[in-house]
Amino acid sequence: MAEIKGNKVVLVGNGAVGSSYAFSMLNQGVCDEFVIIDLNEEKAKGDAMDLNHGVVYAPSPMKIRFGTYEECGDASLIVICAGAAQKPGETRLDLVGKNMKIFKAIIDEIMATGFDGIFLIATNPVDVLTYAVQKFSGLPENRVIGSGTILDSARFRHLLSEEFDVSANSVHAYIIGEHGDSELAVWSHANIGGISLKKLLEENPEKQGRMEEIFVQTRDAAYDIIKAKGATYYGVAMGLTRISKAILGNENSVLTVSAKLNGEYGHDDVYIGVPAIINRNGINRILETPLDQEEQAKFAKSVETLKAIQSPFFE
Question: 61 pLDDT exceeds 70?
């Protein structure tokens, strides 16, 4: 398997998520070259100029500019944040029809340049659209990745860290499944500093009732944020940067991305949020976390939810 070379990132879609991702990438010095593509050329040019004025304070030099699809041919990583945004009261899956058409046009433009790198998708419904990008592009499945449940897992770890008064970095817990209403928490493997959550709850029984509340807060966080300020963007931008670092740094890091199942967890032909090893080839492999019976049933329901949405488009 040929390793993806170079260090050029192209962003398609410079809205709230895309521009936050660009700012995060600059702050962390993740790549050498960063190109912004957007229908609103003036805003994209303005953002490129504004970001360049911060390069002097960034951890490493980074060339940032506005560009067109012609820039995609030699890119290592293309991150897609374009598409219709989620409105108050609208689920991620409600967006699928609108964004499927937008994505077909974008992918056709990109693949016409000879692009042969890695796609990272953030637009919702992310699992279904990542599946669509793989179909539209014809690229190997390991080189088409969705942001999956990386943000959900971060929200989950944050809430658990607050509950147990520890750093979120010491909380090891995953949200898997659809990035949306059918997602699930893998309670059976959650631990804090190596101590299982089950044991901690036995020692702190008063916290038991909080666990379901924490999951609901995790699952519904986007709705709360959208109601408060119109959209979510900082958290997912940081998650996209984390995935980008794992790819460009050839890290072999385990992250809960949207990956294509081929028999893992007993399912196939669906992109869904699962722990996977990420490196310069994209998804090196999916890790099958052992699930208890209840978790298996919930995961199967999540798979069914996504397949029901994507099947009318790809039968």
Answer: yes
E-only strand ranges, 60-99? 63-66, 77-80
For residue 162, give its domain range: 150-310
Q: Which of 115, 146, 177 is the last residue of a domain?
A: 146
- Nearest C-alpha neighbor of 121 from the set 132, 110, 109, 105: 132
Closest CA to 8 of 107, 80, 108, 78: 78
Q: Are 272 and 178 in contact (CB under 8 A)?
A: yes
| 2 has a pLDDT exceeding 90 | no
Q: Quick one: pLDDT band at residue 23, thresholds 50, 70, 90?
A: very high
pLDDT, residue 85, reads 72
DSSP reduced 3-state for 115 = coil
The answer to whether the beta carbons of residues 182 and 302 sit under 8 Å apart is yes
**134/92: higher pLDDT:** 134
Q: Cα(31)–Cα(85) distance, rounded to whole angstroms?
A: 27
Which one, of 283, 271, 302, lies nearest residue 127 by Cα?
271
Q: Which of 129, 146, 163 is the last residue of a domain?
A: 146
Q: Six-digit token pair at 146?
A: 């969705």
Query: What's this model's pTM, rounded to 2 decimal places?
Result: 0.95
Please check whether residue 132 lies inside any domain of the structure.
Answer: yes
- d(C-alpha 29, C-alpha 260), whole Å: 29
Residue 89: band (very low, low, confident or very high) from pLDDT cuts 50, 70, 90: confident
β-bridge mates for residue 256, sequence order: 275
Q: Are residues 23 and 102 in the same domain?
A: yes
Alpha helices in 29-64 (DSSP H): 41-52
Which are the catalytic amino acids? Answer: 179
Alpha carbon distance 272, 306 (integer Å)? 8
CB 145 within 8 A of CB 257: yes
- Neighbouring C-alpha atoms within 13 Å toward the C-beta of 68: 4
Q: How many structural domains is the chain composed of?
A: 2
Q: What phi, psi does 181 have (nearest 5°)?
A: -70, -20
